[in-house]
Specification:
Elements: E1 11-14, E2 20-25, E3 33-38, E4 41-43, E5 52-54, E6 60-65, E7 79-87, E8 90-100, E9 109-115, E10 120-125, E11 137-144, E12 153-158, E13 163-165, E14 173-181, E15 193-196, E16 207-209, E17 225-227
Parallel strand pairs: 1-8
Antiparallel strand pairs: 2-6, 3-4, 3-7, 5-6, 7-8, 9-10, 10-13, 11-12, 11-14, 14-15, 16-17
Keywords: Immunoglobulin domain
InterPro entries: FN3_dom (IPR003961), FN3_sf (IPR036116), Ig-like_dom (IPR007110), Ig-like_dom_sf (IPR036179), Ig-like_fold (IPR013783)
Organism: Limulus polyphemus
């Protein structure tokens, strides 16, 4: 008898006018005849509607579903489809859910993680509703508090990166707003958040990169690299390095 457990995808998502394939694989000897059903109504190959095309009916069957935002009934294609396989030895059935994906919901919370005179590092609490699709990016728009809508700057980050904005002006008030983006599109924008940047201060500590660890490549000199830190509103004039000889006492 047919065995439909080899069908791999039982949850499929699409949106707008994007067609999508539902695939049903029947392991059977002899080959099983496959039929498609939605809400107890069979989708027949000989009278396919504008929303369906059955590409095959034996062993492996693909049902091409074509949702529509403009045609009447174009969104009624979403729901739980039943794939039914039958041969002379029996029948097997499996449900495949077709869900309508949407843009993400609103971002839950924005936190100011670290603030210097010219930079802000944000933490983003993602939306509760991702729209049935993974979040791909976070978008930000920002402007000086007194500027108009024509003076808005924008920035975006891939999900999971460090959410940082740089080159801000010290002692200046800014407005920030955020939204999440998935494959469907951009979700709603948050309300504007206000933050006044602190005054200029000493630069952050540089981060030293040791390409060779504690062992020098050279006999009489040692190469040190560092990541230039935030200058906190004033141009860095120079770097100072302190070093001393370590005496090996043999202990």
């Amino acid at each position: 008898p047919p065995d439909l457990s080899v069908t791999t995808s039982t949850s499929v998502k699409t949106w707008k006018d994007n067609p999508v394939n539902l695939t049903c694989l029947a392991d059977a000897i002899p080959n099983a005849t496959i039929s498609w059903w939605l809400r107890n109504n069979e989708i027949r190959k000989q009278n396919n509607s504008a929303f369906y095309t059955i590409l095959s009916t034996v062993a492996i069957s693909k049902l091409l579903v074509k949702p529509s935002l403009t045609l009447p009934g174009g969104r009624d294609v979403y729901g739980t489809y039943k794939c039914k396989a039958e041969n002379m030895y029996g029948i097997d059935e499996i449900d495949i859910d077709l869900k309508e994906a949407s843009t993400p919901g609103p971002i839950q919370k924005i936190l100011f993680d670290k603030i210097t005179a010219t930079t802000i590092v944000f933490s983003i609490v993602p939306p509760i509703d991702d729209g049935e699709m993974p979040i791909k990016k976070y978008l930000m728009e920002y402007k000086e508090d007194q500027k108009t809508e024509n003076d808005i700057y924008s920035k975006e980050w891939s999900e999971g990166l460090s959410y940082i904005v740089e080159n801000l002006e010290p002692r200046t008030s800014y407005l920030f707003r955020f939204s999440a983006k998935n494959a469907v599109g951009v979700g709603p924008w948050s309300t504007w958040l206000s933050k006044k940047m602190p005054q200029e201060s000493v630069p952050d500590a540089p981060f030293i990169i040791q390409p060779g660890g504690n062992i020098s490549y050279y006999s009489q000199h040692y190469e040190i690299r560092c990541i230039i830190p935030a200058d906190n509103g004033k141009h860095i004039l120079y770097f100072e390095l302190k070093y001393f000889k370590v005496m090996n006492t043999g202990i």
